[in-house]
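Notes from hallway chat w/ T.B., transcribed later so I don't forget. T.B. wanted the structure written out for a chain they're using in a teaching module, and asked if we could keep both sequence and structure tokens in one place. Agreed to drop them here.
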Amino acid sequence: MNILVTGVGGQLGHDVMDELARRGHSATGADIALNQNAVWPYVPMDITDAESVRRVLLEMKPDGVVHCAAWTAVDLAEEPENARKVRDINVVGTRNIAEACRELDARMLYISTDYVFDGQGDEPWQPDCRDYRPLNVYGRSKLEGERAVGGILEKYFIVRTAWVFGLNGKNFVRAMLDAGKKHGRVRVVDDQIGTPTYARDLARLLVDMMETERYGYYHATNAEEAEGGYISWCAFTREIYRQAGYTTEVVPVSTAEYGLSRAARPHNSRLDKTKLAAMGFKPLPTWKDALSRYLKEINYGTD
């Protein structure tokens, strides 16, 4: 396959490129600025510029696009001065990619989020649920991106994920490791429930999908340790410290007590992933296993 990957400067896009290369596919990475240090074929592309997108795709003629580029700074998206930029990237940019894919009859895989839902209740969200009520600007923009893809294309995957951590860039695990190194006690939210996702594991699944024509909506995070075993950010932090050998005290607090977020956050980020196996895809390993491998990759951990 010949695949274009957007947003290769981020955690997920970087790992998707690595996975495509590992399998011997022809892949080109794209991002807003030229990357002089890229180890794989790379092209600068502004996804908010329809002509730039169309020119790159028509020259490359990919069989498909894995669209990882996105505005993901949830709190900054709430700032009025960022409103247009968030929409340009997450909605207009996504529409530009989808329209170029339609012209080429190429498949598209769009990365979305649990934030398209309202985060209420305690039942896992189903991938084909259409009960959308996003709580914040970021969630609304990602939902508009979903609708653009579904309204323009027939050959598409929409994959919702949550709590992503990876080797390339900042993430929650690194932030907690830094905090635990500096402080003997950290406060972590205990009333937002979901499951972490290791970008390397997710990248493997996304390439699996691109090798098929089993289009549709999917949910993908690492697996829970037991059925219904979703966790809080607080429980995730405790496991990070246990595996890293930290003795830092983790103090559970409510979202209201924590009080640092500009954007409303979903309390229920549970994503039902049973459709993956039903459609013949290999689910991701458990999150504890993923965390262990990640910590070894970054030279942390005692077990």
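Follow-up for T.B.: The two ends are 39 Å apart (CA to CA). Might be a good example for the class.
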